[in-house]
Amino acid sequence: MPCTAPDRIAEITIRSAVRGEETRIASFQAESLRMLACGAYTPAVIDQFIADVGTMPADLISSGRLFVLESQGEIVATGGWCWRQANGEPTSHRPAPNDDADDPEQVSVRRGNDGTVAEITAIYVDPIYTRTGLASWLLGSLEADIARTGINTVRIAATLNGLPLCQRNGYRPYRIMSLRLSSGAAFATIGLVKSVETSGQSGGVRAPHHRHAHA
């Protein structure tokens, strides 16, 4: 009898993505987006978004902060995080404190006490693992990894289909974003934010166990 997705949770391993597997990972991510986002965007818009923007930040793998979950050698999920300046622009490191640069109306979406933020990105799950709790577990594990750096504020730019998952896990919407694609179509996402408790513990993202929380 074939294993169901919940039965196979215990078989999942997790590791950092490495250079040289960009094509394999991006292919998985694109297929996941096409299948899970088809109720929120048209196939043409999804394909144009992938062509224009891609499925993850270009330097996410080289930064060492993209994680790959596998079962029996097959990718079943990915997720990672990256630094962001207070204005949302990318940066490769945690900037020095500069509270004066913060917009008073956006204090709640800072990266942390020094005005920096972390953004979770590239969350993709194999459709067979939806509603098993795997995505929620991955989200929580990435939050814990971020908290170990001392950052206490996490952002996500969620696709419309990913919004319920984020809200179930405590994220608050703070803005609607619309990206104009080269075709002229708009790709809408929702900016969300969550405060997390910081931790000085070292560790890393660990594989899920049977007692993961279902969502």
Roughly how many Å apart are the termini? 25 Å
Radius of gyration, whole Å: 17 Å
What is the fourth-level CATH superfamily of one domain? Gcn5-related N-acetyltransferase (GNAT)
* Biggest β-sheet description: 7 strands, mixed
**Beta-strand share of residues:** 25-35%
Please tell me the overall pLDDT: 83
Which strand order does the major sheet show?
A: 1-2-3-4-5-7-6
CATH topology (level 3) name of one domain = Aminopeptidase
Q: Low-confidence segments, ≥5 residues, pLDDT <50? A: 1-5, 95-114, 208-215
Can you give the helix content as a percent range?
Answer: 10-25%
Secondary structure tally, helices: 5
CATH architect. name of one domain: 3-Layer(aba) Sandwich
CATH class of one domain: Alpha Beta
Number of strands: 7
SSE topology string: HEHHEEEHEHEE
Going by helix content, strand content and strand pairing, the class is alpha+beta
Q: Label the overall shape.
A: globular
What would you say this structure looks like, in words?
The structure is a single chain. Helix content is 23%, strand content 26%. The protein is of the alpha+beta class. It has a domain at 5-97 and 107-153: Gcn5-related N-acetyltransferase (GNAT) (Aminopeptidase). The protein is globular and about 45 Å long. Residues 1-5, 95-114 and 208-215 have low confidence and may be disordered.
